[in-house]
Amino acid sequence: MTTKAVIDLSACRHNLSVAKQAAPDSKCIAIIKANAYGHGMVQIAKSLTDADAFGVARIEEAVTLREADITKPILLLEGFFSEEELNIVRKHKIDTVIHNESQLQLLEQSRGEAVSVIIKIDSGMHRLGFSPKELKNISQRLEKCAGINKPVKFMTHFSNADDKHDEKTLKQIDVFFQSLDDVSYDEISIANSAGILGWPQSHANWNRPGIMLYGVSPFINAKAEDHNLKPVMTLSSQLISVKPVKKGDAIGYGGTYVCEKDMIVGIVAIGYGDGYPRHAKTGSPVLVNGKRCSLVGRVSMDMICVDLSEQPDANVNDPVILWGKGLAIEEVAESADTIAYELLCGVTNRVEFKYID
Ligand SMILES: *Cc1c(COP(=O)(O)O)cnc(C)c1O
Description:
Layout: E1 4-8, H1 9-22, E2 27-31, H2 33-38, H3 41-47, E3 53-56, H4 59-67, E4 74-76, H5 83-91, E5 95-98, H6 101-109, E6 117-120, H7 135-144, E7 153-155, H8 168-180, E8 188-189, H9 193-198, E9 206-207, E10 233-245, E11 250-251, E12 257-258, E13 263-268, E14 285-288, E15 291-296, E16 304-307, E17 319-323, H10 329-335, H11 340-345, E18 352-356
Parallel strand pairs: 1-18, 2-3, 2-9, 3-4, 4-5, 5-6, 6-7, 7-8
Antiparallel strand pairs: 1-10, 10-13, 10-17, 11-12, 13-16, 14-15, 14-17, 15-16
Bound molecules: pyridoxal-5'-phosphate.
């Protein structure tokens, strides 16, 4: 059975070049956490030769990259959480975010080699980061701390940048720059993909593109092609059954879809066991033989059902695309009440991954 995810590495490199062109004076930390948003972290890292650095969330991800001979700077976005992890950071020369008091204390108490850090400021998202009013105090401690390379860098992260009309983003930029009045620093980092493409005020020494590298628009109500981004993952499968059903027949678990007319239904070998979202609604778009048709009924673990009324000649084994080339993942995500990030991260290891360049 050929349920597969084809990963187009040249599309990923193209998307990085879009990030670089949008902010030509900034360097790029290509964000490849969560297995490169489901695309395969090591393969993506090896193909992004133009990235200036890589960003991951967990220390295990950083170690995996080093063990795969990735020598570029790696930024650990959530930092370390024990002396042991701090030693791994040192051993593998990983740059680390410091966002809380206990991380700072670990560094102050530790006797090892100095590490390169970027201090995260909470400019309004209220997830990770020091509050701006703590910074004066923290800055004094940073200066005294022998375990930290100087000068220290600073960063912040946006909560609402996916909405170009939300003024929260400009407020966060203001709060961030105001808080820097209290510290000495050399380099800073603010922008994620939405910042890079929609908020030029946020471009800084280091930008942090994530979702855009995978060919997805970071904005609500927008598509990749609006920004000249190309989809990297194409998820595909095949028809495994084609059959006529009668008006009034109910299809799939729970019989939630009842045929309004006699029609032809195709069964596709993909389901939530592969990462296709169970909450995709009847009407969600699916490409069969390159032509759009609609999902009908509930998504099962291994299968979905599609309405083939417009394609009476479709046959078992015909190709089906769930998202990617020819079908925007943003559209599928919306139809499943989620975001493309989650769909991409959720493709399971039953799916065969194939890399093309
Ligand atoms: C995930 C992440 C990014 C990338 O965000 P996108 O919206 O995918 O571009 C940037 N910065 C931080 C701190 C992140 O956690």
